[in-house]
User: Which sequence fits this backbone?
């Protein structure tokens, strides 16, 4: 397995390089960053999760949601949306 992180995020073949376990681990790490960076004054951090239409989208979405939620993040799942739309939903 080569580099996973590229200019557009995590890259690799689904179920080989990019597994559900990796997605959960990355989501938990992201949740810790959200918790450390944000001043939530007793509120839980929140995240929006979207995906693309690739066959791997559903299992990776489920893994990311599980990782975030297990680390205490309130998750809004928006399904298939273009990246700019997901970004807009976070503002």
Assistant:
């Amino acid at each position: 397995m080569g580099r996973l992180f590229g200019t557009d995020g995590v890259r690799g073949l689904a179920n080989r390089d990019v597994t559900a376990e990796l997605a959960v681990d990355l989501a938990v790490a992201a949740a810790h960053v959200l918790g450390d960076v944000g001043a939530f004054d007793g509120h839980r951090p929140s995240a929006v999760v979207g995906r693309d239409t690739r066959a791997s989208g559903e299992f990776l979405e489920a893994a990311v949601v599980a990782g975030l939620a297990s680390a205490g993040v309130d998750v809004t799942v928006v399904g298939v949306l273009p990246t700019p739309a997901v970004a807009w939903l976070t503002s």
